[in-house]
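Late entry, evening session. Most of the bench is empty. Finally got around to the prediction I had been postponing all week. Sequence below, unchanged from the version circulated by S.P.
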Amino acid sequence: MVCSPIKRFVELYDFDCKNKKESSGLEVTLETSEYISSPSIYDILIHTEKFEEAPGSFVTFTPGTGASKGSVQFCTRVYTYSDDLDLVVFSRDANFKYNFDLTVNEYVVSGLDNEEEDADEFESDLSSSFGVETCQCSSDFTCYSTDETPTINQNDSLELCIKGTITDTNEDGDTSSIDISNFSVQLSAGDIVYDAVMLGTDTWEENTLTLVTEEGDMKRISTPVLAQFFTEGHSNMNIGGQAFLNFVDSRGKAETVTSLSLVVGLSVNDKNVCFQRLIRGARSFF
């Protein structure tokens, strides 16, 4: 499989990136919405002739100065997009605020303020600090300890819990709020593959036999285990998938993707072994 390149985009929002704005015709515009370069570079255009009309509501005028003095505030959202997954992989918001004075012959800008996390440092933190805890769990979302983890019998369901985790804090000592916004879960052994939960456009999509419930920031997945896992004589089953983590801390908010994995024991009885041998023997005649 040849993976398509990750695309980078930038969008214009009001301050704090709450509401998306049009990319043209406003007092603040972006010269381009798509770029491939790294580090990410994009141009912001300020149109002073539109300040008085302020169609984008980015401008606030100082009382008593008419339309000559004030401030401009806006936000940009930079994100990377994967065509293969049809999903946003990473995003970062940046607030901009500055003061202007149009009463002098020259256009004077002062008090420029830009709040944005350094991309390289932020992405490094993503890969080193965040992950997904994956475990077999009970109906009350409690993970079993290693020596208590049950093996799965035929006709039993797999009860799986996943939760976003942080391994350390940032340089300021702040912790983060982490949420799994999208994820997939796949059961496999040998040539047998079963997709219990798939990545969706906005959030996860479980199949008709699977139930996903939530408690706080933990997700619980209950899904049947295919009989083929037992009739083929497998003693272990691999759990794999991907999870998209949304997190917020003092530096901003972003999204990253990580993998989840777990090995689950299967209870194989003598009847299953005999049935497997019978099937193999029957195949040898053809």
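Two things to note before I forget:
Confidence is low (pLDDT under 50) at residues 117-128, 170-175, 277-286.
Residues 126-283 form a domain with the Immunoglobulin-like fold (CATH 2.60.40.10).
Will write this up properly tomorrow.
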